[in-house]
């Protein structure tokens, strides 16, 4: 009997997740859940792929005043390198706020927080590289250094 109940709960859960993803339940959430899911599951991965394939280092360096080598290091750190994360060694998950910031940096229409992102990621990449640490240690050291980034 317990197995049947568990099976029913799993089926209901799968149905709800599927209905949310196709937009059926958005009327109950005002569509905000769909927008949130789409930013993380569709927009961010597509944007990261475009960023990885773009030759934008020189352009961002000119737009921001950062050196080409710093921008290249930051781009490698965010979009290409594998890191020892909490659960495994892999690249960072695509983040829609980072994608937004990077795309603004490409166009030169960036915000102050986008520059803070560059400073944060540069310090983090240096710390991780010099001390051969995991991501969490490097990230916490970056925050302790005062290099915080808050997406707008």
Give the CA-CA distance, first to last residue: 50 Å
Number of strands: 2
Shape: globular
- Please identify the structural class as seen in this structure: mainly alpha
Using the CA coordinates, give the radius of gyration.
Answer: 19 Å
Low-confidence stretches: none
Q: Any idea how many domains?
A: 2
- The percentage of residues in β strands lies in under 5%
Element-level helix/strand string: HHHHHEEHHH
Largest sheet, in brief, is: 2 strands, antiparallel
How are the strands of the biggest sheet laid out side by side?
1-2
Helix percentage: over 70%
Continuous helix count: 8
Mean pLDDT: 91
Characterization of this structure:
Keywords: Membrane, Transmembrane, Transmembrane helix. The chain crosses the membrane at residues 6-24. By secondary structure, the chain is an all-alpha fold. The protein folds into two domains: 1-30; 43-144, no CATH class. The protein contains eight helices and two strands. It has helices at residues 2-21, 26-29, 32-53, 57-64, 68-80, 96-107, 112-131, 135-144, and strands spanning 83-84, 89-90. Strand 1 and strand 2 form a beta hairpin. The longest helix is centred in the N-terminal third of the chain and has 22 residues, at 32-53. The model has no long low-confidence stretch (mean pLDDT 91).
């Amino acid at each position: 009997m317990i197995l049947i109940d568990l099976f029913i709960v799993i089926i209901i859960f799968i149905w709800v997740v599927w209905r949310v993803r196709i937009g059926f339940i958005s009327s109950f959430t005002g569509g905000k859940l769909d927008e949130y899911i789409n930013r993380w599951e569709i927009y961010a991965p597509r944007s990261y792929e475009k960023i990885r394939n773009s030759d934008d280092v020189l352009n961002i360096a000119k737009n921001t005043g950062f050196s080409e080598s710093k921008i290249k290091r930051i781009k490698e750190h965010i979009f290409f390198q594998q890191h020892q994360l909490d659960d495994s060694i892999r690249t960072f998950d695509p983040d829609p706020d980072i994608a937004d910031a990077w795309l603004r940096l490409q166009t030169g229409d960036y915000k102050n927080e986008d520059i803070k992102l560059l400073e944060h990621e540069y310090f983090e990449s240096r710390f991780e590289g010099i001390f051969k640490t995991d991501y969490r240690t490097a990230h916490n050291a970056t925050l302790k250094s005062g290099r915080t980034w808050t997406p707008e």
